[in-house]
Amino acid sequence: MLEHLKGNGQEFINEVATIGRIHHFHIVRLLGFCSEGTRRALVYEFMPNGSLEKFIFSKTNSSSHRQLSWEKLKKIAFGVARGVEYLHQGCNQRILHFDIKPHNILLDHNFQPKISDFGLAKLCSKDISIVSLTAARGTAGYIAPELFSRNFGEVSYKSDVYSYGMMLLEMVGCRKNKDPAVEIQSQIYFPEWIYNRMRQGQELCLEFEEDGDEGIARKLAIVALWCIQWNPTERPSMPIVLQMLEADLQSLEIPPMPFVSSDVETGAIN
């Protein structure tokens, strides 16, 4: 159900008409819609395993008690990346989602991921790389810096890349990226904690059950850290993200520090 929509509903109809033409394995299928007065709804295919967030943010879940194997997490990461790539490259018009997060990744009976919830999506021409927005859109914790201030760069499809990277880190850490409830101060902001450990060549201190699990975790983390670079021009496009996910771990370089460190004199994470 969609609420707080403005205007006469024409934008809603245009969006439905566009999204209704999208056919991709990793994007949830739109079955129908309702537009009656102020009541508007979208009807999607049923996804029996619900959303990704319940598997990585469960109260019984932690980095030492995972409901999803690393192999499944890798497949989910690939699937979401392919879905976002299609939105950016595979349609007549580029579709910017602006709300990529675990809550909006639905899982079918085989745990194949499908991107859902296009309520904040914006359509734009492939010829135009910079998007004009009057206000930031998205969910706190996943919104790219340039959506708050143009000092960080221009808004573009790279904003979705940032959100994807933050989601990827939450999959790796099996927790919210910023969690004040964490007892160890240095681990409150997970992106910085994992960046420092990888830069120093330390173990990730995550739970691994099978040979190769740590390699998967390191690869996902490196890709994520590239995706969350504050400067949009330094983030990879989704085709490059897919190449990195398919590459050998040894061929991937750890990126520069993606954010302002909490070790600076202000003591704040910006």
The CATH superfamily label reads Transferase(Phosphotransferase) domain 1
Task: Give the class from helix and strand content and strand pairing.
Answer: alpha+beta
Name the beta content range: 5-15%
Task: Tell me the CATH architecture.
Answer: Orthogonal Bundle
- The number of helical elements comes to 7
> What's the helical proportion of residues?
25-40%
Pfam family, one: Pkinase
InterPro entries: Kinase-like_dom_sf, LRK10/LRL21-25-like, Prot_kinase_dom, Ser/Thr_kinase_AS
Main location: membrane
Organism: Citrus clementina (Clementine)
Model description:
By secondary structure, the protein is an alpha+beta fold. It has a single domain (47-251), classed as Transferase(Phosphotransferase) domain 1 (Transferase(Phosphotransferase), domain 1, Orthogonal Bundle), CATH 1.10.510.10. Helices cover 31% and strands 9% of the residues. It is built from seven helices and six strands; from the N terminus they run αββααββββαααα. The chain has helices at 10-19, 53-56, 70-90, 158-173, 190-199, 213-227, 238-246; strands at 30-36, 39-44, 94-96, 105-107, 113-115, 122-124. The protein has a two-stranded antiparallel sheet with strand order 1-2. Strands 3-6 form a two-stranded antiparallel sheet. α3 (70-90) packs antiparallel against α4, α4 runs antiparallel to α6 (213-227) and α5 (190-199) packs across α6. The longest helix is centred in the first third of the chain and has 21 residues, at 70-90. The two termini are 34 Å apart. Mean pLDDT is 87; it is low at 264-270. It is found in: Membrane. GO terms for molecular function: ATP binding; protein serine/threonine kinase activity.
